[in-house]
Amino acid sequence: MGWMQDETGLDKCAANHVALTPLSFLTRAAQVFPDRLAVVYGKHRKSYREYHARCSQLASALVGLGVVPGDVVATLIPNLPAQAEAHFGVPACGAVLNTINTRLDAGTVAFILDHGSARVVLVDSQFIPLAEAACAAMEGTAPQIVEVPDADAGHPASGRYPLYEDLLAGADADFAWQLPQDEWESLALNYTSGTTGRPKGVVYHHRGAYLMCMGTLVSWRMVLHPVYLSIVPLFHCNGWNHAWLMPLLGGTLVGCRDITAPAIFNAIADEGVTHFGGAPIVLNMLVNAPESDRREFSQQVEIFTAGAPPAPATLAKIETLGFNVTQVYGLTETYGHVTECLWRGEAWEGLKDAERAALKARQGVAMPMMEHITVMDDGMREVARDGKSQGEIMIRGNSVMKGYLKNPEATREAFVGGYFHSGDIAVQHPDGYIQIADRAKDIIISGGENISSVEVEGVLMGHPDVNLAAVVAKPDEKWGEVPCAFVELKPGATEDEAGLIAFARATLAGFKTPKQVIFGELPKTSTGKIQKFELRKEAARL
Amino acid sequence: MGWMQDETGLDKCAANHVALTPLSFLTRAAQVFPDRLAVVYGKHRKSYREYHARCSQLASALVGLGVVPGDVVATLIPNLPAQAEAHFGVPACGAVLNTINTRLDAGTVAFILDHGSARVVLVDSQFIPLAEAACAAMEGTAPQIVEVPDADAGHPASGRYPLYEDLLAGADADFAWQLPQDEWESLALNYTSGTTGRPKGVVYHHRGAYLMCMGTLVSWRMVLHPVYLSIVPLFHCNGWNHAWLMPLLGGTLVGCRDITAPAIFNAIADEGVTHFGGAPIVLNMLVNAPESDRREFSQQVEIFTAGAPPAPATLAKIETLGFNVTQVYGLTETYGHVTECLWRGEAWEGLKDAERAALKARQGVAMPMMEHITVMDDGMREVARDGKSQGEIMIRGNSVMKGYLKNPEATREAFVGGYFHSGDIAVQHPDGYIQIADRAKDIIISGGENISSVEVEGVLMGHPDVNLAAVVAKPDEKWGEVPCAFVELKPGATEDEAGLIAFARATLAGFKTPKQVIFGELPKTSTGKIQKFELRKEAARL
Fold first, then answer.
1. Where do the AMP-binding enzyme C-terminal domain residues begin and end (chains A, B) (predicted)?
2. What are the backbone angles phi and psi of residue B335, rounded to the nearest 5°?
């Protein structure tokens, strides 16, 4: 231990120890980048001076509504300015921000509002009916609704609730922020959208969000003044913490209500977007966009993608359009991304597309703010770095949640042995890069052979007519399970089941080749992940 | 405070809380950048895999020499590989690194070795006589000397001490690093070179160095894989923490024994240097270098400069050579730079050279890792932001020292009121940018008028024949004090006293114009600062 023999007088004091918090990024930005554009959405264009003032007004208004430090303030808002402002305004009065997924059903929203004991909920006018139904279904006291209309987008005020802008207008732009005294204080509450049971409330601390921002900017090669397009929902790991990150860099956050190819291309061309994150489905949307939806742009745009490895065919196409894609991996419990497929320029340049894509399909290595991320067997021993031995991804570092709210047993289980247990099954390559073998349930076992649904999907996605493909296990008398594919074709495409099966068989072993192909739109979660459990149910019915 | 009503089970644990330390940057770099070039000096070219192994061997060797956690290990080495390795190898065995200024006299080195109770000292062969004289002059037990020869540079081994490379060769490259359990543990000890009295031992903690690195890379617009030329001595605030920073970015540290214009231009051209720090005297050296000492290069090179504002004439010249200069400000007590003259592109583009230089002469705003840096009067009230009202620069944030070793009284004084008191006198401009009015003793008071020696020096430096200029007060019967200039001319230049005085008078008020000019080489400290106290003594004798 690095304690010297005599450390008299060397203690922490106000001059040399300040609690880490992302709030300090905006406090500083208002001083050093006052005239830079902070948040953009349509006609809403606010500088850092204005953004800071509006967040201060929000904090002041919340205090006026009776919010006290430690209270929960919830939101039901798309990636719009008020949602970004809540990331600072809510903790600036000592409250904890609970961004709720706007695509959830009223029953689940009611559960979340009850479980978190939200005192106030900021609601976009589009989601007032959802909020009202949820409040009606609650067991406890319903939170006070504050309405955030977006008339220009066709969502005017209902007239039934106090309006966000009115509250701000009546509040104090010089409100003194309640900065944390201890960086372990709670900053945000995010409910995981588990496939079974009630969602769990993941609690973030100020320190974790601060360090998440620092690590992210290194991995994403961000310099001052990036322009970040907010596609990853801010209700999903707080948009991977990017709302908190932007003021550190004097960057601009570009809001976005509906994620469409024209909206993305327009933001890139008109606002000079340099960075965004999104599930592979977003990449797909871009490469498959008709020419009329595209725009010219000159900057290189950096994309972080997560949720599933991008298909090789998608990667090959999107890079020629001026995008650079880095796969990252993480969970709600880890504030979002904690591994990155760091590109080894010195070793990997000059590879062919297929080899590049195979490397980019890896989830990669620990990001800078993390201490250790590895793959372990059931006895918590690291698996061999052979690209074959499977185990669970285990995560240790400063961007790991405090735990699950009011669920100490689940927290204890998640942290057994000093690592967060991700639940994701992976291998480690000889260079230490982690690659998800399959979300545990996505392994198809056919005649005793393991089949990676990711691999089969990757092949199908290489077919020029395929927009999206998902492969699940279908129960089978003889083989136990066989792969069954669900496919969305591109508009106007005409490929049929036999053609796709033959295409897959040209690359895959027979046992890996889908035995059946079902065409139609795939069911997706609010974050764009394909709902495989729905497909598994459907496959079982076939 | 952001504590929720029920925080049961939400405590820190091994999974979600890891002590911040720059050591983790190298641990990670060895994993994710193993084949990247980490340290370069002549034939010494080591990858991150090798660098990590050598630092592990150093830690192992120190344990073999009897070093235990909390011990001090000192160095007397220029900016060479062993000095960089000590930044990781020493704390990796739990010891505290004390890099000693190689330009100090033996008596002061003896005081430092005694005061810090150094157990081992790593010594470059050039400084073996200094180390021997210091050890002989010590009151307590002398540290064990380990010699680091540099035969290629004309400094072969003395044959009297164990050799650094031999110790490494016999040590364990898989030594398990002793990472701090608490980020407040001591990492380094740096003695300030005060102008009066014995130096004070400034103690750094792991957290401060980690956050210093994070803040620096943002301000310096560093992305992955910078090439950093080590000009700022690593014994000066640990080279502003850059040895610790490089592994975070997979960057390359280029060693340098003697700071000369050819050495700098060669490193830029041959090693692709992208960043370096240095006092204005280094900038001067570059702009005044003869054509034969220069080399062509295509990259933009970013320079952090500190110690004094760069002269407008120097700034104007160096930017045309492919360098971008940012002034930073800090002290040993703040790990180096804590303010930066952040360039406000949106507001300041298109200004003329003189206006740009005037803005770049400011010390600027708090860097991202700092909480609050301002200028206060004696009552600790912020002075008006009018560019005129003077006060003391006061500093609060995570890159402030733990305190002075074995000097709790000086520590308490330095931290009165919850800020570190810098001792530097400054003004604040309306935009919050701080500008040093003068180091307190550098103000010349003539006939009741304050004269900024910095201003007068800036004018003199604009003369084409002037290489360096320093202005101090000379006692005067009539006016109390008058400005007296000491000037180094460029080789071959012929300007005389009358000519320079006339040149200055063309810009300056009469009372600010030097009454006397003395030509000759200026006395400088080990870090390149001009020793004004020597000049003041000389001026008093005139």
1. 455-529
2. 65, 15
Separation in Å, CA A235 to CA A529, B207, B367:
15, 31, 30
Query: At A196, is the pLDDT very low, low, confident or very high (cuts 50, 70, 90)?
Result: very low
Structural domains in chain B, sorted by start: 45-179 (3.40.50.980), 212-439 (3.40.50.12780), 447-541 (3.30.300.30)
Q: In the prediction, which pLDDT does A439 show?
A: 54
B499 Cβ partners below 8 Å, 6+ apart?
A: none
Q: Which residues contact A102 (CB under 8 A, 6 or more apart)?
A: A76, A77, A78, A124, A126, A127, A130, A233, A235, A526
Q: What interhelical angle do A312-320 and A280-287 show, nearest 10?
A: 60
The residue-averaged pLDDT of A492-505 equals 93
3-state secondary structure of A255: coil
Report the distance separating Cα B429 and Cα A143, nearest Å: 46
A186 near A204, Cβ under 8 Å?
Answer: yes
- pLDDT given for residue A322 in this prediction: 94
For the stretch A6-63, pLDDT in tens is 999 999 999 999 999 999 999 999 999 999 999 999 999 999 999 999 999 999 999 9
Q: Which among B69, B224, B368 is the nearest to A1, CB-wise? A: B69
- The interface predicted TM-score of the complex, written ipTM, equals 0.87
Chain A hits for B182, CB-CB cut-off 8 Å, are: 1
Tell me how far apart the alpha carbons of residues A394 and A313 are, in angstroms, rounded to a whole number: 30
Residue of A nearest to B26 (CA): A368
Please, what sign has the CA dihedral across residues A352, A358, A363, A364?
negative
Range B43-52 contact pairs with CB under 8 angstroms and sequence separation of 24 or more: B43/B152, B44/B81, B44/B255, B46/B81, B48/B247, B48/B250, B51/B26, B51/B85, B51/B247, B52/B26, B52/B27, B52/B88
CA dist B90 and B95 (Å) reads 5
Highest mean pLDDT: which of B312-321, B396-405, B499-508? B396-405
CB distance B371–A18 less than 8 Å? Answer: yes
Residue B371 in contact with partner chain A when CB distance is under 8 A: yes
Interface list for A 414-453 with B (CB within 8 A): 414-415, 418-420, 431-432
> Looking at the predicted structure, is the pLDDT value of residue B105 above 90?
no
Tell me what pLDDT residue A481 has: 85
- Which DSSP string do the residues of A371-398 spell out, in sequence order? EEEEEE-TTSPBPPSSS---EEEEEEET
Q: Verify whether the Cβ–Cβ distance A9 to B70 is below 8 Å.
A: no
Q: Is B506 on the interface with A (CB under 8 A)?
A: no
CA distance B333 to B491: 37
Nearest CA-CA distance, residue A279 and chain B, Å: 25
How far is A398 from B313, CA to CA, in rounded Å? 47
Collapsing DSSP states into helix, strand and coil, what is residue B67?
A: coil
At A129-140, the pLDDT tens digits run 999 999 999 999
Task: Convert the pLDDT of each residue in A327-383 to its tens digit.
Answer: 999 999 999 999 999 999 878 888 888 888 889 889 999 999 999 999 999 999 999
Read off the pLDDT band of A195 (50, 70, 90): very low
φ and ψ at A359, to 5 degrees? -70, -40
**Beta-carbon separation of A432 and B24 below 8 A:** no
Q: Nearest-CA distance from A69 to chain B in Å?
A: 5
